[in-house]
Amino acid sequence: MADGHQARLTQAAALERAGRIPAAVELYQSVVAARPELGDAWYDLGRLLRRMRRPTDALAAYAQALARNARDPQEVHLNRAVILAEDLNRPEDAEAELKAALALSPAYTAALLNLGNLHEDAGRRDAARQAYEAILAVDSDDATALARLAQVKAAVTRDDPILHQLKNALTAKPPGLERADLGFALGRALDAAGDYDAAFEAYTAANQDSAALARKSGVIYEPAVAEAFVDSLIESTPAPVAPLADDDPDAAPIFICGMFRSGSTLVERLLAGHSGVRAGGELDLLPTLAANVFNPYPAALGVFDDASRRKIRDAYLGAVRERLPGVGIVTDKRPDNILYLGLAKALFPRARIIHTVRNPIDNALSLYFLHLSHHMAYALNLDHAAHWLAQERRLAAHWKSVWPADIYELDYDDLVARGEAAVRDLFQACGLEWEPSVMDFHERQASVRTASVWQVREPLYAHASGRWKNYEGRLDPLRAALARYGLDG
User: Fold this and answer.
1) Nearest to 202 by CA among 388, 371, 360
2) C-alpha span between 185 and 146 (Å, rounded)
3) Is the pLDDT of residue 188 over 70?
4) Do the bridges between strand 277-279 and strand 254-258 make them parallel or antiparallel, or are there none, so unpaired?
5) Vertex 105, ends 103 and 106: CA angle to 5°?
6) Distance of alpha carbon 61 from alpha carbon 71, whole angstroms
């Protein structure tokens, strides 16, 4: 062709393989400017724009791909749904895209799986079950759908057919990630059925499968490396700074952090019940800034003048507004926010921080029972879970020594024991007026995108405290590890 578009597409693909995403985007943009009828080029442009964290632009490119008859339009709708759900907090629009994909291809299991996940996020248990069952009707060997189906069952008995389905699926020796999915689902189902010895065995096997995947990916938890990283965070802590002259006091987020399974989702759910607060969920803004702007992190925090603070603060707030348009204090809830509090307080000196904690033995055991990404290798071994828990507590104590008035430690066990009194203390720490309706958090329909999706749809309950007692005979090594790392288990 005279315009050489094919050569530019080939070059763009090579740039993408080399990790030069901005340069590849520029080439794709030049191609579609000259040849706008090329739907597949629009599709590739959409993919890369999302990788550059430009979700609105990615949606526009995908819309052009649909209009220009790109291949596999059902996949374009799926990709739009993922952006709408995960990047822009628009679950209703995401659901419409998934239904458009399924209208084109009713047996498209990827869309059915995402639809089931959306239903789970919204607390629609029956609708989620129907989506997963539809996948299994197409492919009875789909391990992910079976694992998710087991997850949405409200109750399980020892003779429940789902247990036999999970065991039979594991007997077929599926690939590593599917085997881990099934193993964690089996552990949860056995726990729900009260068969605790069998549940512990299932969880142990699932963690071993996940650990094998981690090793294959080169991910190994090394206690000495973890300690050195925490040391570097402490040593690189920027000095407390005053707010910038143009800081909006109402724009400072509430940062929520703490170990997985320590109550952070419940805290966000409670705070989001306030008329002046919006739940941001697990925003990736701080880790993205650390990786892309302050590289190497945390050492690069040392060169952080007011002009840089203002520019980066505005970029953070712009990304929040794109995801959550409107007014109100936004919560930024991620367990790993604990690693970025020095950055958070440099950007937002007025920010309040909630650090959630829980009985260490319950917390470590709940981590072991949760199917986290194998990249979080500390969760795959009870000794390592205890070690990282100790490091996280050490880092939190340091942050609190630097900003004692702005960091509030919330104990999950105290929260569920004292109920409203503890919630009032939380709201006071955040500078929020009390609103009695916040205690109705379990009745709200807002989407929840964490492993606690079902727990936070129940009233405050205490039965998760002391859960370790069901496994008491298995926990001597964990107790010894917690004691070795200075934690009372």
Assistant:
1) 371
2) 9
3) yes
4) unpaired
5) 75
6) 14
**Side-chain-side CA neighbours of residue 212 (13 Å):** 11
> Are 321 and 422 found together in one domain?
yes
Q: Three-state SS for 329?
A: strand
- What pLDDT digit, counting tens, does each position of 324-366 carry? 888 789 999 999 999 999 999 999 999 999 999 999 999 999 9
71 assigned to some structural domain: no
Which residues are registered as beta bridge partners of 353? 255, 407
**Residue 461, domain extent:** 223-484
Q: What is the pLDDT of residues 116-125, one digit of tens each?
A: 999 998 889 9
- Compute the distance between CA of residue 444 and CA of residue 201 in angstroms, rounded to an integer: 36
β 407-411/277-279 pair status: unpaired
Domain tally, the chain:
2
Residue 411 pLDDT > 60: yes
Tokens of 489: 């288990």
Confidence of residue 1 (pLDDT cuts 50, 70, 90): very low
Name the helix (H) or strand (E) containing 411.
strand 407-411
Mean pLDDT (the chain, rounded): 92
